[in-house]
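Data deposition worksheet. Section B asks for the primary sequence of the deposited chain exactly as it was used as input, without tags or linkers unless they were present during the calculation. Section C holds the resulting structure in token form. Section D is free text for depositor observations; keep each observation to a single sentence. Incomplete worksheets are returned to the depositor.
Section A, Depositor: J.P.
Section B:
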Amino acid sequence: DPSIITAVEFDGQWRKLPLPTNRSYVSARNLSPERGCGQATILYDSAEFEPVHELPGDGSNSELRVIPGVVRSLKDQGLGESAVRPKSSCMLLLRQHCRDNIEGQADSSAGQLLLVCAVHLESAQPSDTRKVLLRRQQVRAMLSEVSGVAKSLLAAGAPPCTVAIGGDFNAIREEFLHGNSGELFACAGTQLVKPAFRPPVTPVGADEM
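Section C:
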């Protein structure tokens, strides 16, 4: 059973249901402050992890740095003009608890950090160039947010951190490399999709995104 679950369609009906009881799951939407926006959340096993909401500042700044609970737009991050962000997202920094291993010794992974990001991107076929461009902007916002947290961790002298990204990207991976240009449709992975994708009227390449 997974100790961490990313859920991006965790709507009101799902929230009425109890969480699985096979682990001590906690939803990021039930934390204080609440994490996540739209219909996204992260479930984690509280017997293995604890959330980290703030980090100490670096040597030049003693103020606490708050870990964002959602993926913000580049504009809200102060890094650009784009107001686009994933339609649902949740971010959570987790610290692993100390547990004894089989030999009775302390687990060497204790205290390690895990940055989890759950996103739900715009849905549409790759023939829809406007939506392809929108998904690319959403991915840029996500990668920028993750990079910002990583830089904060490094500045704070935090222990090693693993990044895990899950959710629904509503696209095949080749789209983020090639846009919806002819290169996308020439990829072996694209050609395996059945029924086949319809090519766009006005394609856009990765260098134009």
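Section D:
The chain has a mean pLDDT of 88.
The longest strand covers residues 88-96.
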